[in-house]
Design brief:
The chain has 25 helices and 27 strands. It is an alpha/beta fold. The protein has four domains: 177 residues, Alpha-Beta Barrel (TIM Barrel); 200 residues, Rossmann fold (3-Layer(aba) Sandwich), CATH 3.40.50; 117 residues, Sandwich (Immunoglobulin-like); 65 residues, no CATH class. The chain has a six-stranded mixed β-sheet with strand order 1-2-3-4-6-9, with helices on both faces. A six-stranded mixed β-sheet has the order 10-15-14-13-11-12. The protein has a four-stranded mixed β-sheet with strand order 8-7-5-16, with no helix packed on it. Helix 16 links the parallel strand 11 and strand 12. Helix 2 crosses helix 13, helix 7 packs parallel to helix 8 and helix 7 packs antiparallel against helix 15. It is globular. The chain binds beta-D-glucopyranose (BGC).
């Protein structure tokens, strides 16, 4: 289709229709004056295909005169057919054959993959890319042109958030490095990725009408970077439900036009979240929104907005052309040639396994892991994982690997038991899985563990004998362990690990795989310690009062020790860092060092590079992640690692000047092998070519100047020469520390010595 020519022949009404969903998960699929517009299907798929949506599509032509109740019953028990009646089983068979035909012969269930939080725990861009590729493959098989939520890169700000697990990290650098890999992977399969929810969808409470009051600096430094990075790749973006500083995201001109289009140059399509637009569609369109979902959405308001002059035809055309191009590019997506059922299954299993294996985080190990060859394991409570959260990130599948079965394969099935306290006392390892379910439209009430798990662990701890206790946290984010960490011998976080989580965990427990995941978010001792604790809303306003101090930035700034810090994750190997060396090449800095594996086990480790500005002019986080690497080092060997970063990673967003700036001066660098609380000094760098706006001179604040002896000495000389009392200036600095020298002195040009000292100024 020649989209430009096609658009010319469309009526205003056709164009308006193009921008409105035509089905719950589709656009297009109608006759226009220019000819037929193909249908483009969109479905949730950040962790795999959302079966419910596909089911809804199937129900458009219901098999076997099925009624809605039967439909629901079949849907919820699709992979547990024993729960179905005879007639429902027949309906199910009918659906399976329809699905198989629709999918060009692929008969296996969709795969379930780890969510953002576990993908980020891998600290491995390649793993995220491969997962995205597998998700793209899933979408192509189901002929889904736009895979929603690939990724959901909202920052992990408030751990009670029901959708915490979907997001990547509390840290913008980690999120912006990993999340675009998901987009790349999906798009590599000829499917449109979709980055959501732009921006600040950080809570589920009152999510459609909450007003989030967020400082410009926090938006720019914390909440936007991952979106900006994804927008370089993603063909579509979904706006968020909430309001930011008073304006709903889907009609936020500043967000959608100024930031997204003008500043970032985003060329893709912006769509609403489902049913988020409650006001005038025409006005939201004029503010920069392209598509209104779900369908059928009444397009008459867009036509009216053009007639009223609220929506310029030019803007309508721009949006319509973007949507036409999207339809043209992605509506014909289909199963890749040569993709057989077995290839489909293998590819998905491999990607899901690899992501879980790289992401699972070992949080405690007193030597009880890995299990010895003939060890026994006893499950107290569930023996398998809940492999996804609920809501749009929920995936139903029958491909889940059960942990106890997988352990049985490795230890021998007779060595894997259930509820056998005697075996535990005699030396078997008790395995306790804590499952906290979470999902869309509700936040967790607190960060507590289930009472049942707590009592099981307490009981086991009392009856320990020779046994060891392994606690596995299958949780959507941080939980309070309330001292239980002391009673157990090992702890792992698996974060809804997807269909292969059981297999990956069994391999880690038996030592076939050495754990290498690291936390992408901080685990607090108590919920009250979390930076956003005081800001949890009880009405329709959420004040992001912690500002830029999200996650570890807030813990370190307040001197609050977490339970497990950001970046923390243990290994069966022991690593050490040697010979650290820094180099600079233009705006690029590199830190090279050797990592030694001092153990007898091959392993990977996540090395993090943090920067800390000495004597920062503005309030800054004491540490900011600016780079990382995840090398694999053979037992007893040493390997050279180099982490490179750009000078712009040292910048902060200056609210007064409205841009990112790099301050001159010293930045201390630190390497973290075990998260941000256990750091190895890695030297410091001196920036003398920072942003001109911040150069030492009359634009410096009085308090800044008064702290520097060379500057005050020069001022004293100038004052003496001009017969002005220096005390006058010092007094001004006391009363107006935030005024600049230019404002206070009025004629800074007169202070020659001071100006010279500024030129020569070099921070100690
Ligand atoms: C969710 C989105 C999702 C959409 C479609 C909304 O309620 O917030 O994340 O993509 O539904 O299912």
């Amino acid at each position: 289709m020649n989209t430009k020519k096609f658009l010319k022949n469309m009526t205003i009404e056709d164009k308006a229709r193009l921008l409105c969903g035509t089905g719950p998960f589709s656009i297009g699929g109608f006759e226009s004056a220019a000819g037929p517009v193909p249908e483009l299907v969109m479905q949730d798929g950040g962790t795999g295909l959302n079966h419910q949506h596909f089911f809804q599509r199937l129900m458009k032509e219901p098999p076997k005169d099925i009624n809605p109740q039967e439909g629901m019953h079949v849907f919820f028990n699709f992979y547990e057919p024993d729960k179905l009646t005879k007639r429902e089983k027949e309906i199910r068979e009918d659906i399976i054959s329809k699905i198989t035909e629709y999918r060009g012969g692929i008969s296996d269930a969709p795969g379930c993959y780890p969510p953002g939080i576990l993908l980020a725990s891998t600290w491995d861009p390649k793993t995220v890319y491969e997962t995205g590729k597998a998700l793209g493959m899933e979408a192509s098989v189901y002929r889904i042109g736009v895979l929603l939520g690939t990724p959901n890169c909202n920052i992990l700000r408030e751990p009670r958030n029901g959708r915490f697990f979907e997001g990547y990290s509390e840290d913008p650098f980690l999120a912006k490095t990993l999340a675009p890999e998901m987009c790349k992977g999906v798009e590599s399969m000829g499917v449109s990725s979709n980055v959501k929810h732009f921006a600040c969808n950080n809570l589920e409470i009152n999510r459609t009408n909450i007003d989030e009051l967020v400082s410009m600096r926090a938006l720019r430094e914390i909440y936007f970077p991952a979106f900006e990075a994804c927008c370089k790749v993603a063909s579509t973006l979904m706006s968020a439900y909430p309001k930011i500083n008073g304006v709903h995201c889907h009609e936020n001109l500043w967000l959608l036009k100024t930031v997204l289009r003008s500043e970032w140059g985003y060329k893709g399509v912006a769509m609403t979240d489902w049913d988020s637009c409650k006001g005038s569609t025409g006005d939201a369109e004029a503010a920069g929104q392209d598509i209104f979902m779900p369908g059928p959405w009444d397009h008459s308001d867009i036509v009216k907005a053009v007639e009223d002059g609220r929506l310029p035809v030019k803007d309508l055309d721009t949006a319509a052309l973007r949507v036409l191009e999207l339809i043209e590019k992605f509506s014909g997506v289909k199963k890749p040639d040569g993709l057989t059922n077995s290839k489909y299954r293998k590819t998905g299993d491999k990607a899901a396994y690899n992501a879980a294996k790289e992401g699972i985080v070992m949080l405690k190990n007193n030597g009880s892991m890995p299990l010895k060859k003939n060890a026994k394991a006893v499950f107290f409570g569930p023996d398998h994982f809940l492999d996804s959260g609920w809501g749009s990130a929920e995936v139903k599948t029958d491909r889940t690997a059960c942990l106890s079965e997988e352990l049985g394969k490795l230890l021998g099935s007779k060595n894997v038991l259930k509820d056998d306290i005697e075996a535990f006392r005699k030396g078997a390892t008790a395995v306790v899985i804590e499952t906290v379910s979470s999902g869309e439209s509700a936040d967790r009430p607190d960060l507590k563990m289930n009472k049942k798990t707590v009592s099981v662990i307490k009981k086991l701890a009392k009856n320990k004998g020779k046994g060891k206790i392994c606690l596995i946290l299958n949780v959507p984010g941080p939980v309070e362990l309330d001292g239980l960490e002391k009673s157990v011998d090992s702890i792992f976080a698996v974060f809804y690990p997807g269909m292969m989580g059981g297999k990956a965990m069994a391999d880690i427990m038996t030592g076939a795989v050495n754990p290498s995941g690291a936390l992408p978010c901080t685990f607090p001792v108590r919920y009250e310690d979390t930076p956003a604790y005081l800001c949890y809303p009880d009405n329709l306003t959420c004040n992001y009062g912690e500002g830029i101090y999200v996650g570890y930035r807030g813990y370190i700034k307040r001197g609050i020790e977490p339970l497990f810090p950001f970046g923390y994750g243990l290994s069966y190997s022991e690593f050490a860092v040697n010979s650290i060396l820094g180099t600079r090449n233009g705006s690029k800095f590199s830190v090279s060092f050797n990592i030694e594996n001092k153990s007898r086990t091959d392993g990977k480790t996540v090395v993090q590079l943090y920067a800390s500005k000495r004597k920062a002019r503005t309030s800054r986080a004491p540490l900011e992640l600016i780079g990382f690497a995840k090398p694999m080092i053979r037992a007893g060997e040493e390997s050279e690692v180099k982490i490179t970063f750009d000078k712009k990673e040292l910048s902060y967003f200056d609210e007064e000047l409205g841009r990112f700036l790099v301050e001159d001066g010293t930045y201390d660098l630190f390497l973290g092998l075990n998260g941000c609380e256990d750091l190895i000094p890695a030297g410091s760098i001196y920036i003398a070519d920072g942003s001109p706006e911040l150069k030492c001179g009359p634009s410096w604040k009085m308090e800044q100047i008064m702290k520097e002896k060379s500057l005050t000495d020069a001022l004293k000389k100038d004052c003496a020469g001009a017969g002005i009392p220096f005390e006058g200036l010092a007094e001004m600095a006391r009363w107006f520390p935030h005024m600049t020298f230019a404002e206070v002195s009025r004629e800074p040009g007169k202070y020659k010595e001071f100006l010279r000292a500024c030129k020569e100024f070099k921070e100690e």
